[in-house]
Design goal:
single chain, alpha+beta, two-stranded antiparallel ribbon, 12 strands
């Protein structure tokens, strides 16, 4: 059986790894330092004592990782309504798949989801324009990064799926919660299933490795009067549901509380009063 290393250009392991790392980092605007030290973490020794390229190397630095891991990708599906229907009643209105390295997947997925998030700008109280959105920007970024960073890549038969309904986002990722992380301690427990991937994403400022990301997601939800994300595991798939909320918005660089319903009602009341006064 051939190793992954036997399927790459016939160069010495370290030489090839250095070249691959420098090419990838240069293309993404990163200047590598301590190249030998960095690249050695992506070389592993198999049971036969042979040097081989690690899975993390292929997923992070490979030209086309899906050649070796076809389902190491992220799929976004948008449904019309609040139910997932099939057959003649299928209600899918968007179905987009993102491939490439993990970093590229993270960037492209976040960028695309942002195009699907509804924003509504209106004239609110104190004659200031207010913009509300269905999901806070940080929640979308952190949930997407978590899905790509912490999925179980040894489960090769399915991909990450992000499903958008009218009332929620559902992130489905292969694998259960990692390590000692449980639904009741996830807000303050830090554990990386894939530490090399987490370290790489940290270098690009997508991961802080402080274990505070999910706690901030919960705080964002709570601050907007919404429920925190809920968890469910179906066989080998972790499903996290994020309810749709209205984000607090920025007006003149200051965070303000906006109750869209109350503002709308007050505007309607004022209009009705003015109309009554004119008619009387």
């Amino acid at each position: 059986m051939r190793t992954l290393l036997s399927m790459v250009p016939p160069l010495m392991t370290l030489t090839w790894m250095q070249w691959l790392t420098m090419q990838s980092w240069s293309a993404m605007g990163k200047v590598p330092y301590n190249t030998c030290e960095r690249t050695m973490v992506f070389v592993k020794t198999n049971k036969k004592g042979e040097e081989d390229v690690s899975t993390a190397c292929i997923l992070l630095l490979g030209k086309y990782p899906q050649k070796f891991f076809p389902r190491a990708r992220t799929r976004f599906i948008k449904y019309e309504g609040v139910d997932e229907k099939v057959g003649a009643e299928m209600n899918v209105i968007k179905d987009v798949t993102f491939e490439g390295t993990i970093l590229n997947q993270v960037k492209k997925t976040i960028e695309f989801i942002e195009t699907q998030v509804r924003e509504h700008t209106f004239l609110g109280q104190h004659a200031q324009f207010i913009t509300k959105r269905d999901y806070p920007e940080f929640v979308i970024q952190e949930m997407t990064v978590n899905a790509c960073c912490h999925r179980a890549y040894n489960i090769k038969g399915t991909e990450i799926q992000i499903k958008m309904f009218d009332d929620r986002l559902v992130f489905e990722s292969p694998g259960k919660l990692p390590g000692q992380v449980k639904p009741n301690n996830i807000r303050h427990t830090h554990f990386s299933r894939n530490p090399k991937i987490a370290a790489f994403l940290k270098a690009y400022h997508f991961v802080k490795e402080f274990g505070e990301g999910f706690d901030r997601i919960c705080r964002e939800q709570e601050a907007n009067g919404a429920n925190i994300p809920s968890f469910r595991t179906d066989e080998f798939i972790l499903k996290i549901t994020v309810p749709k909320v209205t984000e607090k918005v920025t007006v003149n660089d200051e965070r303000v509380n906006v109750n869209v319903i109350d503002a709308s009602q007050k505007t309607s009341q004022k209009t009705s009063q003015k109309t009554s006064q004119k008619t009387s």
